[in-house]
Amino acid sequence: MDWLGDVVRQGGSALWDGGAALILPALFFAVLAVLVKKREALAALRRAAGEIRINLGLYLFDTLMMLPILGLVTGFAQAAMQGAGLILVPAAFWETLGLYPTLFIVVFAGDFIGYWRHRLEHTNLLWPSHAVHHSDTEMSWSTLLRFHPINRLTTTLIDSTFLLALGFPAWAAVANGLVRHYYGYFIHADLPWTYGPLGRIFVSPAMHRWHHAREYKYAGTNFATVFSAIDVAFGTFSLPGPCDVPLGLEADMGQGVRGQLTYPFRRWFSAAFKRG
Q1: Is the pLDDT of residue 90 over 80?
Q2: Do the Cβ atoms of 251 and 135 come closer than 8 Å?
Q3: Which of 24, 151, 178, 227 has its CA 20 to 30 A from that of 110?
Q4: Domain ranges of the chain
C-alpha cells in the first residue's frame, strides 16, 4: 500500500501549495476592494460568495486532477516538437538577445497566441467548455480559477505548442505564465478602471469585464489578456466605459461544481444526437 501513501502525500502537498498560492491574491484584492468600494465591499463579497465557492471548487479539482496531466501534456508536446524538428528559433538567439527583450517578446507572443486561441474558444467546437468560465454572474478576481478541465487542457496544449516552436528558454516560458496568470487575476477583478488612453495598449479590468457581459454583442470582443493593442489591431476592441451591465450566461449550467463539470459534455452529446 506504499503507492496509496504516495498518492495521499502528493495530493496533500498539491492542496497545500494550491491553497498557499491563493493567499496573497486574496489579501491583495480584499484590500483593493475596501479602498475602491469602501462600505460597498462587504456587500459585494456577499453577493459573490456563491460564485466564489464554485470557483474554488473547480480550482480544487484542477489542483488534484489536472496538474499532473498538464505536466504530461507539456512534456509530450516538447518531446514531439523537438523530435519533429519543429523548433523554429534556436536557443542561442534568445541568449544573444538578452533578458528584458526576451521577456517582453515572450509575454507579447504568449498574448498573441492566447488571443487567437481565445477566439477559437468562442467557436461552436470549444465554446461548451469555455462557457464554464463565462458563467460567473458576479465576476471577481477568483473568476480566473473557473475553468473546465477540457478548457484547461486545450489552453495548455495550444499555447505550449506554439511557444515551444519559438524556442523560448524555460525561464521565459515560466515568466510568461506567471505574468499572464497574475495579470489575469487583476483584469477579472471587480474594478471600474479603463486606463484612459492606455486602455488601447493594455487590457484594463473594465475592458475584460465587457468581454464577460451577458449581451451577445460583446461576446466577440476583447480577447487579449495583457495587450489590448492586439484587439485594436484585429478590430475586436470594445471599451464603452466602466462595465455596469449584467454578466455571465443565461444558460442553465446545473447545480454547483458538478453542473459546471458536466455542462460541456451535455452540450456536446445534445449536439451529436441532433445531427444524428
Answers
A1: yes
A2: yes
A3: 24
A4: 51-275
